[in-house]
Specification:
This protein has helices at about 20-30, 50-60, 80-85, 100-110, 125-130, 155-165, 185-190, 200-205, 210-220, and strands at about 5-10, 35-40, 65-70, 90, 110-115, 135-140, 175, 195-200. With about 220 residues, it is α/β, with parallel strands linked by helices. Strands 1-8-7-6-5-4-3-2 form an eight-stranded parallel beta sheet. The protein starts with 5 loop residues before the first strand and ends with a helix.
C-alpha cells in the first residue's frame, strides 16, 4: 500500500496507574503518535485530561501527541495544550463558531490543525474546512467514551471524503477514531483512512507492542 498508514494508540484506554510503562510500550512498539481525548463534561458526557496530563505524557515519549479537543470554546484552551506539548490539535466543527479562525490559531502556534466531524455531521463541513486544515478526523462512534462499537456507515463517509479530497488535489490525511480493531482496521484503511486511532484493541490485554504489530499485519 503506497499511502503511509499511521497508528495512534488512544490513551483513553490506557491504565493510568501504569502510564509511564504503557507509553513506553507504545513508543517501542512502533506507534506513530499518541492520541489524547480531551473531554470537558459539556460537549461530551465525560471528563478526561487537561494540559498537565499532556505535559506529563510529553516527558515520557518523543512521539507526536495528537490532542483531540472534545470541548466547548476550544479556542480558549488551544495555547495551553500546545504549550504542554501537543503537536497535533483537532477541534470539532460542531463547537467552533469561527472554525477557520480556530484552525488558523492552531497553525500559528506551530501545531498541525485538524477538523473533527461527529458521525452524523454532514461531510460538507469537512469539504469547507479542508483547505484550512492539516487533517480531517472522522468519528466512527459518538464521542465521549472508549470501547464503543464502530458505526458501519463511517466506511462510506471515509470513501466519500477521500474521493472528494483526491478530486480537489488535496493530500491531507483522514484520521478515524472509534471502535477500530483487528476485525475492521483493513476495511477502514481500504476506505481511505491514513491515521488509525485505536484504544481498546491496543491496551485491553496489556500486550501493547504485540497489539500494534497485529494491527499493522491486519492492515496488510
Amino acid at each position: 500500500m503506497s499511502r503511509r498508514i499511521r497508528i495512534a494508540p488512544s490513551l483513553l484506554s490506557a491504565d493510568i496507574a501504569q502510564l509511564a510503562e504503557q507509553v513506553e510500550q507504545c513508543t517501542e512498539g512502533g506507534a506513530d503518535l499518541l492520541h489524547l481525548d480531551i473531554m470537558d463534561g459539556r460537549f461530551v458526557p465525560n471528563i478526561t485530561f487537561g494540559p498537565a496530563f499532556v505535559a506529563t505524557v510529553r516527558r515520557l515519549t518523543p512521539l507526536p501527541l495528537d490532542c483531540h479537543l472534545m470541548i466547548v470554546e476550544p479556542e480558549r484552551y488551544i495555547q495551553s495544550f500546545v504549550e504542554a506539548g501537543a503537536q497535533w490539535v483537532s477541534v470539532h466543527v460542531e463547537t467552533c463558531m469561527h472554525l477557520h479562525r480556530t484552525l488558523e490559531q492552531i497553525r500559528l502556534l506551530g501545531a498541525q490543525a485538524g477538523a473533527v466531524l461527529n458521525p452524523l455531521t454532514p461531510l460538507e463541513f469537512a469539504f469547507e474546512a479542508a483547505s484550512a486544515a492539516d487533517y480531517i478526523l472522522l468519528m466512527s462512534v459518538n464521542p465521549g467514551f472508549g470501547g464503543q462499537r464502530f458505526i458501519p456507515q463511517t466506511l462510506h463517509r471515509i470513501e466519500r471524503l477521500r474521493k472528494w479530497l483526491d478530486t480537489q488535489g488535496l493530500s491531507i490525511p483522514i484520521e478515524v477514531d472509534g471502535g477500530i480493531g483487528i476485525d475492521n482496521v483493513s476495511d477502514v484503511v481500504r476506505a481511505g483512512a491514513e491515521i488509525i486511532v485505536s484504544g481498546a484493541a491496543v491496551f485491553d490485554d496489556g500486550a501493547i507492542a504485540k497489539n500494534i504489530a497485529r494491527l499493522r499485519t491486519a492492515i496488510g
